[in-house]
Sequence to fold (140 residues):
Amino acid sequence: MDVERILRARGRRITPQRRLILSIIQEHEGHLSADEIYHLAREKRPRLSLSTVYRTLDILRESGLISELHLDRDLLRYEIQRDEEHQHLVCLGCGRVIEFKCAHCTRMHQDLALQYGFKITGSRVELLGYCAECQQKQAE
Fold:
């Protein structure tokens, strides 16, 4: 992904803060909250403000470089924007997010689009439940 080209095409510069925040999301494979990104970024740039993190996340999202995920009622999470569709398992106990790909979902979406003459531009599949660790804690 040519981050500089994408940002410049949208009239934005690639600042050290934007580069840092994008690299944190890439390194941690996404699903981070703004607060988590902020704390990780502060380890490398101690003077970085939380408002800069929020502004940067908005710019990266508007530029199509990251996606905003609503996996929790009150908490937004962020991941690198990808062309391939994927789904999420979300643990209601600890908040862990596991990505998976479902070929069946893709086929079903294609069938539905054909059946109803509908152009699907994206989808979100989130399966809620409890991860193995939380299940074990509940059993104890």
Notes: The longest strand covers residues 87-91. The mean pLDDT is 88. The radius of gyration is 18 Å. The chain has six helices and five strands.
